[in-house]
C-alpha cells in the first residue's frame, strides 16, 4: 500500500509544503493503532498531544501506557522531510519503548534501547508500505550527528532503521534468513548493570551494539586510559566510563564519586 489511509489521516487534505501543518490526536491514535496492529497486539496506549513535551516520549503513569508528542515538533519534521512517513516513524519508535519494556525504568539511559526501537521503527514502516528512504526521513532531518546524552549518533540510528526495514523485506519476500553473524573482530564484551543490552569492543576500538540478529552498530569508542589506575575508557557522546585493571567499569558522579556500573570481559570466540 503506497499511501495508506493511516497516512492520509495524519494530514487530511494538506500538501506537504503547507506552512501550517496540524497533527490531530485522532490521527495520531489511528497511526498508533495501525502500528501496533502490525505487531499482532491490541493497542492499549493513551496517545495525546502535549506542547510541553520537547519531541515525543513514552512513559507509564499509574497503570496507563502513555505516548505524548509535541504537535509542533511533528509538524516541523513532516514539513522538513516532505513525507508523512516521518510522523509514523517517530510514533513507532515510542511504541517500541513500551513493547520492549524500556518504560519500566524511565531513568535508565541505554543506547542499545534506542537502537532497538529504531530497528522496530524500520521494520514496521516497511510493513506499512514505506520505502527505505521514507523510513529514514525523520532521522535524516532530526537525528543529531553527534548524538545526545540519551540517543546514539545519527549514523548509528539510521543503520538500525535500515536493518529493521531489510529484515521486514526479507520476510515479505520469503528470502532465506540471514545466518547468525559470527564476528571474530570482537575483543571485549561490555555489560552494564541494569542494561539488558550487550555491547562489544571490536578490533578497531569501536564500542558497538550487537543483538546477534544484525550487523554490529558502532556508537562509541574504547581507548587506552591516561587516568591513573585505569586501563581503558569507554566513551559515547558526553558519557565517559573508566575500566580498571580488574576489568570493572566505573562512572564518576557530578560530585567526583566513583560508582561500579559494569564489567569488561574478554570476548570468547565460538
Key phrases:
disordered N terminus, 8-stranded antiparallel beta barrel, 2 domains, alpha+beta, 270 residues, globular
Strand order of the largest sheet: 4-5-6-7-8-9-10-11
Helix/strand order, N-terminal first: HHEEEHHHHHEEEEEEEE
Low-pLDDT segments, ≥5 res: 1-9, 11-21
- On the 0 to 100 scale, the average pLDDT is 85
List the total number of helices.
7
Q: What structural class do you assign from the helix and strand content?
A: alpha+beta
Measured as a percent range, the helix fraction is 25-40%
Please summarize the sheet with the most strands: 8 strands, antiparallel, barrel
- What is the general shape? globular
The counted number of beta strands is 11
Termini separation (Å)?
Answer: 43 Å
What's the alpha carbon Rg, rounded to whole Å?
Answer: 20 Å
Count of domain modules: 2
Assess the beta-strand content as a share of residues: 15-25%
Description:
The chain is an alpha+beta fold and 270 residues long. It folds into two domains: 5-173, no CATH class; 186-266. Helix content is 35%, strand content 25%. It is built from seven helices and eleven strands. The strands form two sheets. An eight-stranded antiparallel barrel has the order 4-5-6-7-8-9-10-11. A three-stranded mixed beta sheet has the order 1-3-2. Strand 6 (206-209) and strand 7 form a beta hairpin. Helix 3 (71-81) crosses helix 4 (85-99) and helix 4 (85-99) packs across helix 5.
Amino acid at each position: 500500500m503506497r499511501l495508506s489511509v493511516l497516512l492520509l489521516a495524519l494530514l487530511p487534505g494538506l500538501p506537504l509544503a503547507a506552512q501550517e501543518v496540524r497533527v490531530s490526536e485522532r490521527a495520531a491514535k489511528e497511526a498508533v493503532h495501525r502500528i501496533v496492529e502490525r505487531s499482532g497486539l491490541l493497542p492499549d496506549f493513551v496517545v495525546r498531544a502535549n506542547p510541553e513535551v520537547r519531541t515525543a516520549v513514552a512513559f507509564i503513569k499509574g497503570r496507563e501506557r502513555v505516548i505524548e508528542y509535541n504537535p509542533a515538533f511533528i509538524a516541523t519534521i513532516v514539513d522538513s522531510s516532505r513525507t508523512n512517513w516521518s510522523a509514523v516513524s517517530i510514533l513507532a519508535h515510542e511504541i517500541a519503548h513500551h513493547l520492549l519494556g524500556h518504560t519500566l525504568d524511565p531513568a535508565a539511559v541505554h543506547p542499545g534501547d534506542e537502537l532497538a526501537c529504531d530497528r522496530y521503527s524500520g521494520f514496521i514502516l516497511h510493513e506499512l508500505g514505506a520505502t527505505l528512504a521514507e523510513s529514514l526521513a525523520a532521522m535524516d532531518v532530526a537525528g543529531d550527528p553527534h548524538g545526545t546524552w540519551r540517543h546514539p549518533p545519527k549514523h548509528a540510528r539510521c543503520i538500525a532503521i535500515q536493518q529493521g526495514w531489510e529484515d521486514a523485506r526479507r520476510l515479505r519476500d520469503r528470502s532465506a534468513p540471514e545466518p547468525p553473524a559470527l564476528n571474530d573482530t570482537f575483543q571485549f564484551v561490555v555489560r552494564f548493570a541494569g542494561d539488558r543490552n550487550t555491547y562489544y569492543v571490536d578490533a578497531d576500538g569501536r564500542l558497538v551494539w550487537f543483538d546477534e540478529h544484525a550487523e554490529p552498530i558502532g556508537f562509541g569508542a574504547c581507548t587506552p586510559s591516561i587516568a591513573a589506575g585505569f586501563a581503558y575508557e569507554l566513551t559515547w557522546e558526553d558519557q565517559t566510563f573508566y575500566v580498571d585493571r580488574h576489568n570493572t567499569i566505573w562512572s564518576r558522579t557530578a560530585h567526583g564519586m566513583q560508582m561500579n556500573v559494569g564489567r569488561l570481559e574478554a570476548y570468547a570466540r565460538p
